[in-house]
Design brief:
Largest sheet: 7 strands, parallel
CATH architecture of the largest domain: 3-Layer(aba) Sandwich
Strand order of the largest sheet: 3-2-1-4-5-6-10
CATH class of the largest domain: Alpha Beta
Structural class: alpha/beta
Helix content: 40-55%
CATH topology of the largest domain: Rossmann fold
Number of strands: 11
Strand content: 5-15%
Order of helices and strands: EHEEHEHEHHEEHHEEHEEHHHHHHH
Number of helices: 15
CATH superfamily of the largest domain: NAD(P)-binding Rossmann-like Domain
Number of domains: 2
Distance between the termini: 44 Å
Shape: globular
């Protein structure tokens, strides 16, 4: 019975966690959410506020989740270097499973990403990957916190007899405020500032990324795949790339985004012009925009993550993925990538977060 499915969503306020929680709720699941802070989430039946880096606190707090049947781990903690990334992120997932020692877990899903193929922040793209990224590709040499998280998951699954899945989305597109990796909201703010000030709407990244084949991941597609893998026996114990299913080049998509906001596409200068530099005065400009249009008073640095979009758009290599594992097992979810962005832009306008 659906009512017996009790999901624990770790990282419930982020993109992947919030969309997954809402999708499971729609399907009749009981949803238990976990984040560092106490929050009131419409889609949560029970919220647990705990810092998973604290072993003792985790063990105590997770007593309230002793009935969960499925775990969806959708979070990470960025540290100063990859050695610390490995230590902290492995500790967090270890503390989670230790705190759920008595829970009747049937399946646990881990959301990671394309650094599985590209390497860690410290070793990013030092080994040139083959595209499309293949789920069967071996791990890269060197430290990578994704691998450390996987190893903890695999160990507990083997010891306790539950199944697992690992999901590797590309750049995530969806609506959430305060997320450090939200390109759609970042570009909406950038476009709104360009329109307000008359600045050129210039692609900020590298020429390689501007002209290369790319893909992205709609948070709704990831949520569908997480639900599918948790309820499809044939999908047990497999990694899955997770993207929309279409391909594009930023030369095309940039024009689509410009058209949405009624902007002209600026001539690309042939080199990166990072948003972090372009938007140095964004706090003051955004305050003007908020006042002029009567928008919600949300600080621009809570909306936009300039550094992360710069990193994604500034890559100097082609990045797109193959979804053989899930496609051959019948997973068919598809989303047109331009509309992934447009849907977020529509919601931002409807909520009075950006100007209409």
């Amino acid at each position: 019975m659906k009512s017996k499915n009790i999901a624990l969503i770790v990282g419930a306020t982020g993109l992947s966690g919030s969309y997954t929680a809402q999708r499971l709720k729609q399907d009749g699941w009981t949803v238990v959410t976990v984040s560092r802070s106490a929050v009131d989430l419409d889609w949560s039946d029970r919220h647990i506020a705990v810092d998973l880096e604290d072993s003792a606190a985790s063990k105590l707090a997770l007593q309230a989740a002793s009935d969960v049947t499925h775990v969806f781990y959708c979070t990470w903690s960025r540290q100063a270097n990859e050695e610390e990334n490995v230590r902290v992120n492995a500790l967090m997932i270890e503390n989670l499973f230790a705190g759920l020692a008595d829970a009747p877990i049937q399946h646990a899903a881990l959301v990671t990403g394309l650094k599985h193929y590209l390497g860690s922040f410290d070793d990013y793209a030092k080994v040139l990957p083959y595209t499309p990224f293949m789920e069967s590709s071996p791990r890269l040499p060197g430290l990578n916190f994704y691998y450390a998280q996987e190893d903890v998951l695999f160990d507990h699954a083997a010891k306790r007899g539950f199944t697992w899945s690992v999901h590797r989305p590309h750049t995530m597109i969806g609506f959430v405020i305060g997320n450090a990796m939200n390109m759609a909201v970042t570009l909406a703010v950038y476009a709104s500032i360009c329109k307000h000030t008359g600045r050129p709407f210039v692609y900020p990244g590298s020429p390689e990324q501007y002209n290369a084949v790319a893909d992205v991941t709609d948070a709704r597609v990831l949520a569908e795949q997480l639900l599918w893998s948790a309820t499809t026996p044939e999908a047990a114990n497999m990694p899955f790339n997770t993207v929309n299913g279409d391909l594009f080049r930023w030369t095309w998509l940039w024009a689509q985004i410009a058209g949405y906001f009624g902007l002209e596409v600026a001539t690309y200068p042939g080199q990166p012009v990072p948003l972090e530099q372009q938007m140095a005065d964004a706090p003051a400009v955004w305050a003007e925009i908020v006042a002029k249009h009567g928008l919600q008073d949300i600080a621009v640095n809570k909306l936009a993550s300039w550094w992360h979009s710069d990193a994604d758009l500034g890559r100097t290599l082609e990045c797109f993925t193959d979804m053989t594992n899930s496609r051959t097992l019948g997973f068919t979810a598809y989303q047109q990538s331009s509309h992934s962005f447009f849907d977020v832009f529509d919601e931002l306008r409807a909520r009075r977060i950006i100007p209409s």
